[in-house]
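Supplementary Data S3. Sequence and structure tokens for construct A.
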Amino acid sequence: MDNLFVEKSGKRDRIFDVGGRQAAQQEAFNQNKAKALCMSAKGMQGAFFSFSAAGSDCSKEEAGMNKADAVVIGGGIIGCSTAYYLARAGLHPVLLEKNGIGEGTSSACDGFIMLQTKKPGLPLRMAMSSAKLYEGLTEELGYDIQYRRPGGLVLIETEEMKKIMEGVVKEQIREGMEVEFINNDRIRALEPLVSKDIPAAVYSELDGDVSPIYTTRAFAKKAAELGAEIKTHTPVRGVHIEDGAVAGVLTDEGEIRTDIVVNAAGVWSPMVGEMMGTPIPVRPRRGHIVVSEAVARVLQHEITDARYIAIKHDPSLVERAKDPTFHLGISLSMEQTENGNFLIGSAREFAGYNTDARFDILKGICEYSTRFFPALRNLNMIRCFVGMRPYCEDGSPIISPISTVKGAYIATGTEGDGIALAPITGRTISEMILHRETEFDMTPFSYDRFLK
């Protein structure tokens, strides 16, 4: 099985071309990302070059409209989901994005909807509900977002990691999740390429994946069809506050009058928070993903490892570990796309807003992945991408009203869970704005927890 990729690649000596310099890698990353975004837009019949509401003879800007029922700041998957659910409820929201739709974090990540990686409690309950919403989104949004539910494996390499997973699994089962430990024989029956040296794994048939960029843009397109205005390349210059309440949002084109603002700016949410005098304890956490050449489908499930979950639940493990890849924040996350490319990650590190690729991390990811899948040594890696995840200082998202400013709401801090939580987050924020009962008690994710 280790020679599976030889016929496709014809190369067996290296998993990664170490001859290029980091600058060349970054240039290739930028070119490939731009190409991928262009192809995604073309693949959706050009629909995302115009987001005007269906049936309009001219844009709302041309018509001189400068009012909105709500302004959503941020055109990633969370912001677009929020705009969609607000428009579906009959409101006229305006979404403001300083670049293009989905060009930030939402286009530099994997598409995991992997419930096993979510912390037990509210994060897991929300993820389970969000997964159910995903099942109907292709039909609801009118475009194939490439959602599927193949199931997922959390591979366990050491006894230390197994003990950590035993505690996690007990809590997940208490939350009603279907999950079980399996041995190497069962692992290899599901995924024959897994190393014989991996003693155990945790399996759940509930785990799935989706195309993040298709989903983000599908939310935006459907929101526009329902009456939302999607304004790209429109940076926010300020938020107008009167007597402690939202009164408008300032852009280069003028002020949009509104009494509702949703800060869904992801890693940039602290800057939006400053405009309202509301400090947001979020900072970017950089991640790397390596992309392979396309091959025939051989990977049937979503793959991660226990270290990925352990680091997520206890970041201090990184400092205590002896393994050098641990200190780089490297763990395993892997999926195979519809086109046959492997997306292999990942790493977590704080590097400010720097999105340059680090060659040592890319090399480390490749080497670490072969500990679980030795056959990857025969597969060529063709590019990489780097993204910033919005990490909140206490490790939990902020999804709530902002009590210090009337009419201000926030949805940020989801870090690596943004794709999985996008539908439920957008729906929940819309319910809060409409003063409807939410599915969950959102107190643990309230902004007010930082005011104490």
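Construct B, processed identically:
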Amino acid sequence: MTAFNAYESWLGIGLHEQPPTLYRLLGVPVFESRTANLDRAAENQLSQVRPHLDGPHAEVARRLKQEILLARTTLKAPQRKAAYDSMIKVAQAAATPTPAAVPTGPDPTAEPDRNVGKQLGDYRLLEKVSDTTAGPIYRAQHKSGAVVELKILKPSAAKHAEVLKRFCREFQITRRLSHPNLIASFDLAESSGLHYLALEYVGGASFQSILQQHGPLPVEPVVELMIGAASGLAYLHRMGIYHRNIKPENLLVNHRGQLKIANLILAKLDDEKMLNELGDGEALTQPGQVLGSVDFLAPEQAVEASTVDGRADIYSLGCTIYTLLTGSPPYPAKGTMAKLMAHRTEPVPSIRDKRPDVPQWLDRAVRKMMAKEPAQRYASMDEVVEVLQRGGNLSRKLLITIACVAGAILLAVLGVMIYSAS
């Protein structure tokens, strides 16, 4: 029996398009701006949902109705639409290859993924999203109809006790968290000898892939999206969790223009209650162990990863913002040791040396985030959020733009709720 899916059954939105953008939700072309067309499209979509408000899927229908109404409201408000469109353009950038990257035809040497279409526990594998050192990541469909991201741990990696424990702990941590800029986790299981983790499907692309294809990004979308990154990290820090691996590869933008923080496998727990509940009587990070990515690694984390706090994430986020705006990491020295030494000894570079259009307040903020000594950085990630929002006396227009992000986040959350209820 085919699982029920409201988007597909009522609105004709296929699995590959879910969760839909606001434009797809209304069934209009991307960046449509004519009010009459938006009203007419929204009413058409609502007419498909209303008959189900009193049926067996009434709760799903109510949520989908609310999502359509919010989409119409957002796209009819000029400033909110402009902010949403700017984020959509960033998200779509990775899906639009540069001319050099456009394939001229099918690759005769490419082999089809034999796992696509197969069943793994309660999940059917739809397509491979990416490969990581720990194992492949698939877009998959649960038997309930929900589309998820499935992280599969390679058997060779699962043989290492620490790797397997970190993989399992990522689920134990993320299932306790609830924040619009964090990826929700649904399931941890083993089938056919494979360990896998089911997560919220984000779609879109990582900032790393966007940079590789399109180079440095515009200032305004970076500021807006980094507010989301800082907000998610501030939430983690309040929960006593430090990410320790913030970099463009672990910051995703979905096709709704919403930022998501990924990959908590290296996270440090600083909450005794959570440590006890997870059974981590002994810390996974041993004294002297180096964790993280050298291009974004705080100086103190390179020396002793087991004792860092939230200020290490502030440093890494500063390096990430620098990279997004310039197209290269702050210390592009060759070799691991040379990069580690540069983080410790070389002056903090100015973004404006490469991007004169970057406002001075943002350059100052990033340089403070990247201060060599933790005590010289912002005291907390909440302070980073405040600085990015204020932006050196941000104009009222930009404040409205930032407020729009909350509307887009709410719509994305509603979409996830619809999946769950379906």
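The first helix runs from residue 6 to 11. Confidence is low (pLDDT under 50) at residues 98-110, 281-289, 395-403.
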